[in-house]
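User: Sequence recovery, please. Input:
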């Protein structure tokens, strides 16, 4: 393996997280969001996150699987989530 390959090797990891969202009607519900981490030779760094994507864990798991499998670049992350939800 060449040094250039090691220096250019970048992977992305998408992780879900839960949080409580409050509505204007003072209702609260559990929601799922996604964080994206960039891994390279220098380590790991959180680069973006979206809160309140869905309240359904099955839907979140399908989306995470797609993002991680395709190694979606963070610059396309928000567009992919929007397309998935529409």
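Assistant: Recovered sequence (86 residues):
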């Amino acid at each position: 393996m060449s040094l250039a390959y090691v220096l250019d090797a970048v992977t992305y990891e998408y992780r879900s997280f839960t949080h409580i969202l409050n509505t204007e009607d003072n209702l609260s519900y559990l929601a799922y969001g996604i964080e994206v981490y960039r891994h390279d030779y220098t380590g790991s760094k959180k680069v973006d996150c979206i809160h309140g994507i869905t309240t359904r864990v099955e839907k979140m798991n399908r989306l995470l699987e797609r993002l991680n499998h395709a190694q979606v670049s963070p610059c396309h992350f928000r567009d992919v989530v929007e397309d998935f939800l529409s």
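The chain has one domain: 3-85.
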